[in-house]
Amino acid sequence: MDLSFGPEHERFREEVREFLAEHWPAGDGGPPPGAGQEASFRALAIERGYVYRRIPRRYGGSEQPADPLREDILRREFFAAGAPLGIPGVGPAMLVPTLLEHGSEEQREEFVAPTLRGEIRWCQGYSEPGSGSDLASLQTRAEPDGDEWVVNGHKIWTSSAHLADWMFGLFRTEPGEPRHAGISYLLLPMRQPGVEVRPLRQMTGTAEFNEVFFDDARTPLRNIVGRRGQGWKVSRTTLVHERNMIGDPARVQNLFSDLVELARGARLGGRPALEDGGVRRRLVELEGYVRAQQYSGYRQLSATAHGREDRTRLPTLMNKLYTTELVKRLLEFGYDLIDSDESLAAPDENDARARLARSANYPGGWTTQYLYAHGASIAGGSPNIQRNIIGERGLGLPRDLRQTP
Amino acid sequence: MDFGLSEEQELLQETLRDFVARECPPARVRERFEADGAHDPALWSAMAEVGLCGLCLPEDCGGAQLELLDLALAAEVLGEGGVPGPFLGHALAGLALLHAGSEEQRWRWLPRLASGEAIGSVALAEPDSAWEPERWAARLLEGRVGGAKRLVPHAAVADLIVVGLAGGGMALVERGAEGLSVEPFAGVDGTRDLAGLCLDAVPAEALPGGSEAWPRLRDAGLVLLAADSFGSAWKLIRDTIDYLGTRRQFGTPLVQFQSVKHQLADLATELEPARSLYWYAAHAFDHIPAEAERSAALAKAHITDRALHVAREVLELHGGIGFTWECDVHLWYKRAMWNRAFLGGPDHHRERCARLAGW
User: Fold this and answer.
1) Shared-domain flag, residues B225 and B349
2) Is A384 touching B (CB cutoff 8 A)?
3) Higher pLDDT, A67 or A106
């Protein structure tokens, strides 16, 4: 067992720090950089091999050899500096890996590089009003008409659809085929008359997800990824990427540090809350979960770096549920510690920082994040879906009793 | 960076799992649990033969000279197996001699402890859950120790007892010493005996490095209890999955009901990542001195707490049979109770963690 990164990787960490200090304009609490500055920073980071490491150069990536330790160093250092490790969102994180695995050469050339530069923004069209957990029952249809697909139906919970240029999603193209076999994975332009986006206002007061209605919306026949009826299989790649995206240990450790600071400043019975025995024990109890996740992360990272992923399959399946449940508990405690003026105040509806905030210690932050925590918990497979996955794939429990039409 | 087990460590666990399956199946655990006295000399000899009695002791004393992580990996497997007997106290007595004993004391005792020929134990607690030297009253004066100790593992069969002294020193007391009386204690876990010690001017010798070595001894004990509890709880989850796979109601194995699956998934998800917590604490014990004390306390509080929770939940998942004496669940449940309370409960160690963080 060895917890050091070794001289080669420590040199790499130094190199990354120097790079960030020199090139990331907001590094020292300066003003947030403009879009142009971000783009030139990103171009430089790609050139250095820091960003989009698993993506070939010819598609706009930096094509680096797989090195989980370097990737971990980059994630941590960029996070600590508040610098973006590429364009955020489902395009680079989910669609690009899918196109690299299943897309045609033309599709890769058309979409990958502009997506990585943020010139094409994407949303994901999976869930429908009648198809949540049982996604394979989806009904939105795409029918060939000349050299186009004609799409009719209704998608829901579509994050950022109001900002997106394109949608990737699942559509029923083979109406005669049984459930999974009738689905194809299509790419569809959002800015056209047949697509209507209606924002869904969330309980946080903000509207970051949407309903999307298709009324004879159109997309060229060539915008199918994989073959007809193979969409289910193609989409599995994407879901794996979504699950990996959600459990971020650095965020949890930050939130825990925020909680300690909150307890230090909060008062309970006229004294600092951190002097209260109950508060202290509750904090350490939560820290047990936080450290277990952190060290389990080291274990999974080591297993990946040394080609032993098979040993850590079970904890990897647990990451999403463990993290979102832990974040909820941390925020519940934070909500208990803030004063009544804050716990009774409406969340800040304009606070776009909330979702990406690196700290909860800002005015209204605990309340806002307390509410937002449900978003991460439900998105990408709600807690009960995760329990099924852990039970069936991790613990070898039998599949649910279900009635399938 | 490699936070994982070496091939040797995986092999160690594999070998011990085979050993436990062969030498200490659940029927033997139950037999000792129900017997008068959990120590089983034949099992102890077999454990000595596979090297379990001297894993961390020096090679020239007949030990394997491994690190605390290796010892903790062994403790995990013994927890899985519910293996009865004096392993924990024996391991701690060996570490006390190793870290605090004089050259002469080490040569006199360590070879016998490593071979299992002599059984060691530690006498720490005093009344009112006093697990810390600041609250102890036992004293060594002119070669004789006086005081009262409680909750001493396997005191009746121990050849050598390391007695914790007021303020942090340690003294060695031998079996049958004049003035030493052992008072039986009806303990909850039938696989690890406990007893009180009445020490009335008992001849004893000081361990010269006792005060400095106490934190090491405590931290090692906390890590071993955490590891044992992890093994116990994981075994309970696996066994419960097996049992609920055979038990049918409404024409279906119980394990196929979603409420049951979800509960099992939750228990496993709360427990599994905590394995890394005891790995980390054991690793810190030998390699990251600045974090050793706090990570041991955190691992002990967290894992023993989670493990008892697992035991309580799986008992009810069994339904009525789970509440019976005949069902094996309570054997591991009570082991989890023992591990959680011995050396102080979670609240005690969480408060220590808070202090150590400067909160």
Assistant:
1) yes
2) yes
3) A106
Q: Which of A281, A303, A399 sits opposite B4 (nearest CB)?
A: A303
Q: What is the CATH number of the domain that holds A155?
A: 2.40.110.10
**Domain span holding position A302:** 247-394
Say whether both B190 and B151 belong to one domain: yes
Please tell me if residue A198 touches chain B, with a CB cutoff of 8 Å.
Answer: no
User: Consecutive sets of 10 residues in chain B, 359 residues long: mean pLDDT of each?
Assistant: 94 98 98 96 98 97 97 98 98 98 97 98 97 97 97 98 96 97 96 98 97 96 98 98 97 96 98 98 97 98 98 98 98 98 98 97
CB contact under 8 A, B353 and A395: no
Q: Do A3 and B287 touch (CB under 8 A)?
A: yes
CATH number of residue B188's parent domain: 2.40.110.10
Chain B nearest CA to A400, separation (Å):
6
B135 touches chain A (CB under 8 A): no
Percent of the residues in chain A that have a pLDDT greater than 70, as a whole number: 93
Asked whether residue A390 falls in the same domain as residue A265, the answer is yes
Q: Is A274 on the interface with B (CB under 8 A)?
A: yes
Q: What is the pLDDT of residue A353?
A: 52
- From the list B262, B276, B346, the residue facing A299 with the nearest CB is B276
Residues 50-89 of A with CB under 8 A from B: 69
- Verify whether the Cβ–Cβ distance B354 to A280 is below 8 Å: yes
Of A73, A306, A320, A397, which to mutate for an interface test with B (greatest number of B Cβ within 10 Å)? Answer: A397
Q: Is residue B21 part of a domain?
A: yes
Pick the residue with more confidence: A86 or A353? A86
Secondary structure (H, E, C), chain B = CECCCCHHHHHHHHHHHHHHHHHCCHHHHHHHHHCCCCCCHHHHHHHHHCCCCCCCCCHHHCCCCCCHHHHHHHHHHHHHHCCCCCHHHHHHHHHHHHHHCCHHHHHHHHHHHHCCCCCEEEECCECCCECCHHHCCCEEECCEEEEEEEEEECCCCCCEEEEECHHHCEEEEECCCCCEEEEEECCCCCCCCEEEEEEEEEECEEECCHHHHHHHHHHHHHHHHHHHHHHHHHHHHHHHHHHHHHCEECCEEHHHCHHHHHHHHHHHHHHHHHHHHHHHHHHHHHHCHHHHHHHHHHHHHHHHHHHHHHHHHHHHHCHHHHHCCCCCHHHHHHHHHHHHHCCCCHHHHHHHHHHHCCC
CA distance A262 to chain B (A): 12
pLDDT value at position B277?
98
Q: Is residue A311 part of a domain?
A: yes
pLDDT digits (tens, 9 = 90+) for A264-320: 999 998 999 999 999 999 999 999 999 999 999 999 989 988 988 889 999 999 999
Our count of domains for chain A comes to: 3
Residues of chain B neighbouring A292 (CB-CB closer than 8 A): 273-274, 276-277, 302
Which of A2-16, A69-83, A206-220, B127-141 has the weakest average pLDDT? A69-83
Q: Are residues B336 and B346 in the same domain?
A: yes
Can you give the pLDDT at residue A238?
Answer: 66
pLDDT for the residue A245:
47
Give the mean pLDDT of chain A: 90
Catalytic residues of A: 242
Residues of chain A with C-beta less than 8 angstroms from the C-beta of B350: 280-281, 284-285
Amino acid A348: pLDDT: 74
